[in-house]
Amino acid sequence: MATTSKPQRSPAEIEDIILRKIFHVTLTESTGSDPRLVYLEMTAAEILSEGKDLLLLSRDLMERVLIDRLSGDFPAAEAPFPYLVGCYRRAYEESRKIQSMKDQNLRSEMEIVTREAKKLAVSYCRIHLANPDMFGNVDKEKPSGGLKKRSVSPLLPLIFSEVGSGSLDMFGGSSSSVESPPGFLEEFFKDADFDSLDLILKEVYEDLRSKVVNVSVLGDFQPPLRALKYLVSLPVGAKSLVSHEWWIPRGAYMNGRAMELTSILGPFFHISALPDNTLFKSQPDVGQQCFSEASERRPADLLSSFSTIKNFMNILYSGLHDVLMILLKSTDTRECVLQFLAEVINANASRGHIQVDPVSCASSGMFCNLSAVMLRLCEPFLDPHLTKRDKIDPKYVFYGHRLKLSDLTALHASSEEVSEWINKDNTAKATGAGNGNESRLLQSKEATSSSSNTSGQNAKSTTKYTFISECFFMTARVLNLGLLKALSDFKHLAQDISRGEDNLATLKAMRDQSPSPQLELDITRMEKELELYSQDKLCHEAQLLRDGDFIQRALSFYRLVVVWLVGLVGGFKMPLPSTCPMEFSCMPEHFVEDAMELLIFASRIPRALDGVQLDDFMNFIIMFMASPEYVRNPYLRAKMVEVLNCWMPRSSGSSATSTLFEGHQLSLEYLVRNLLKLYVDIEFTGSHTQFYDKFNIRHNIAELLEYLWQVPSHRNAWRRIAREEEKGVYLNFLNFLVNDSIYLLDESLNKILEIKQIEADMSNTTEWEQRPAQERQDRTRLFHSQENIVRIDMKLANEDVTMLAFTSEEITAPFLLPEMVERVANMLNYFLLQLVGPQRKSLSLKDPEKYEFRPRQLLKQIVRIYVNLARGDTENIFPGAISSDGRSYNEQLFDAGADVLRRICEDGRIIQEFIELGTKAKAAASEAMDAEAALGEIPEEFLDPIQCTLMRDPVILPSSKTTVDRAIIQRHLLSDNHDPFNRAHLTSEMLIPNVELKARIDEFVKSHQSKKQRASGEDGSSNKERIQTTSSDMLID
């Protein structure tokens, strides 16, 4: 039987078949089973009426049938956008099938057909997205309430598919399964005019923003972030983003928080692990998910949470950095990015305040994220040699139009001085405009400069600054408002937890003594508060302290800051210029303060300083910590010492700090000198709390000095300073060291008596229970408060006495100066009286070590100071100074002290020398009383008006014209450089010798001594009865 061959289809029929498959339409009534085909009956009738015989789809009819398909109301038909995307996908699939056609001409014709079909589908996708109501077959569902609400752009799932949203969030959050046809998005955004895409893109950006609003780092933020990066990589997408009205939201009530919430990028930067105000809290709650009941969790679980948060945060940082970097590389969008960053910084300037309003300021999370991103932007000019630092123009602070930097507290200049200097500089520039004296500014106008914003901006200056300058100063501000503020919050959280735990312990102790329902409620409330504090603290630790790369990038940036600042004063060399350059003087103070704060935090994080070049920081600190002419704020200079304190080998766990104190020339020559100077300067800070602040600051200095004394090269420098500055800075240092020792020990001993009284009250349980509950609570709180005060004061007193002991072993001359020797003797006598005198038994404690009270060690040190000074006393003036102390001296104290020393096994040679000193003091007291008796009644004009003692070297005070004894007024000037009679400024150099009065005093003394010699046969023993004695039974054995 003969076979019949299949009839050959014509090209027109093949084209019709392909277009029917692509567009799912037909011009003939279908008898097939494909329900997707739509019969365009009206279109077919129109074609027939036009005289065409065959109802076949063709390129010429393609757009016509597509419009009819989209405009018609066909039951069960797809909505326009998925239909058009399907058309593109099917056209792509048909184009692949066509490649198997053997007829090359036919294949070429059909390729044109499928290419035109794809182009037409993309074009109508744009038209539909820009005009959703143009075609009738749209989503007919209305939201509840009948209000029209824009749905999410159908383009968004395709973008998610394109950028690969396969990764799940921490809790398995899934993303859309819609896939973008190959090449669809590329063709969608290619060769289209900006206006046709702008509205579409703006809606997509709004949808992306909505996807991440109130999403924490544990949420599914990665697909929107990747989509954002994809869109800005398109020139049209970048342009559309920065022209969006929400790029920089405007409005009369716009503030930092509103900008974070309403801008396109704000919600992306809000994604964080850090806690936020409850009004703006993100989900999932990081604290609850990762750190609830942390004390009961295994360490491995906490480490896993830390690692997870760190990894997700770095994904966020990298994505946001890529977005900004793409926009900054284009000259069309760079200015808009810089303006956005400036607006965010300026709108959140109040984040630098101690108290931050969470409703008006952006979150810590946003600014920490911004900190991490800005540090990444700075990486190109943070090379090890900082080769590009000269491109940073200091005049940006005064003339840059973006940031409000000149209003910030300066390193030294006052706001008036800053304004005066700017005005003077402007005048000079106007006068010498053609003289080329502003070459540095002209050099900064490079092709890479950011252009000035012409859209309604009130610029201070038309000067263009390099991107490096812009990025440097913006990063410094962002770190101040972001990373450093968050680290401060972390420190306060730790303090709140410590106080809360102390309060909880107190409440539980009170409950044990007298339970009550109110106490139970207070304990429960406190436990809940501590749990929340703990979660917040661990969130900070996870995002900030556990991210070593973040901290090291910040340290690299601040190394650039200090090297650049030193460049403004001529480089790393000492001594500093006598006049501080105004460029340095006017720099914002927080540049240096933030560097010091970060170094302190990093020093307490294991291995955070490994690999960091600390030499530049060390030299900077040595140069400026004792230079109030350069850094006015004494607390900032004190913070520099705190950094060094953290770096001491015994304090630091890092090998990076081990050689900092012994291998630097600046350190060996200036470190001890500047520490002693700062010890003196910190006496007067200008703050209302200066009296108490100085003790904490001097504690850090004392610890550092004690360490340096053990380093031979620094000890030699110390001896040299004591010799060269015997009546200068070293004498002032010694005076304040003695003052502090007396105050701290006196306060501690008085507080110990108060503690013992409260302990006695509480131990009498019968009487204690009869007291009102509120009184018991108040007394218990007072008891714990006094315990803390004693512990701190005794620790500081021990440090001061220790320093006096080890320095007096080799340096005695300054102690024995006329203006100092009596002060030192009075201090030693007072300590000796407290430790071996009648009050000794009342100071006995059950657990003295708890309060840092070590009477044996303290007595040994006091006695060694006595002995050290006696050894260096070549002129035998020390015994007389000891015996002239009318407050604490008693000849029997030396014998009592020796007895105690024997029992606590002190060196026998020390005890013997101490007893010999007591004998000399006793003899000096006898001689002094004989001399006083010989003088008889002293004329009032010969007496010092301050202490009512005979003047030996009278001097006139220039302003009040009062005559006083030189030694007494010089002792006063060590602590206060004012005339004690009228508070006028006074220094030792201003004292005027009263030669005439001195001659009369000398004659008076000489004449009475002559009378004494003539009456030498008379018995003068009765005068010795004036010595105040204490009977031996009063001394505690």
UniProtKB/TrEMBL annotation:
Keyword annotations: Cytoplasm, Nucleus, Transferase, Ubl conjugation pathway
Entries under SMART domains matching the protein: Ubox (SM00504)
This protein's pathway: Protein modification; protein ubiquitination
Biased composition (Polar residues): 1028-1037
GO cellular component: cytoplasm; nucleus
InterPro entries in UniProt: Ub_conjug_fac_E4_core (IPR019474), UBE4 (IPR045132), Ubox_domain (IPR003613), Znf_RING/FYVE/PHD (IPR013083)
Cytoplasm listed as a keyword: yes
Residue ranges, annotated region (Disordered): 427-459, 1007-1037
Domain U-box: 937-1011
Enzyme Commission code(s) on record: 2.3.2.27
Class in the EC hierarchy, top level: transferase
Membrane-spanning residues: none
Chemical reaction(s) catalysed: S-ubiquitinyl-[E2 ubiquitin-conjugating enzyme]-L-cysteine + [acceptor protein]-L-lysine = [E2 ubiquitin-conjugating enzyme]-L-cysteine + N(6)-ubiquitinyl-[acceptor protein]-L-lysine
Any Pfam family the entry gives: U-box
Entry's Gene Ontology molecular function annotations: ubiquitin protein ligase activity
Record's keyword annotation contains Transmembrane: no
Subcellular location per the Swiss-Prot or TrEMBL entry: Cytoplasm; Nucleus
UniProt biased composition (Basic and acidic residues): 1015-1027
Bias (Low complexity) ranges: 444-459
Family classification: Belongs to the ubiquitin conjugation factor E4 family.
Protein name per the record: RING-type E3 ubiquitin transferase
Organism the protein comes from: Eruca vesicaria subsp. sativa
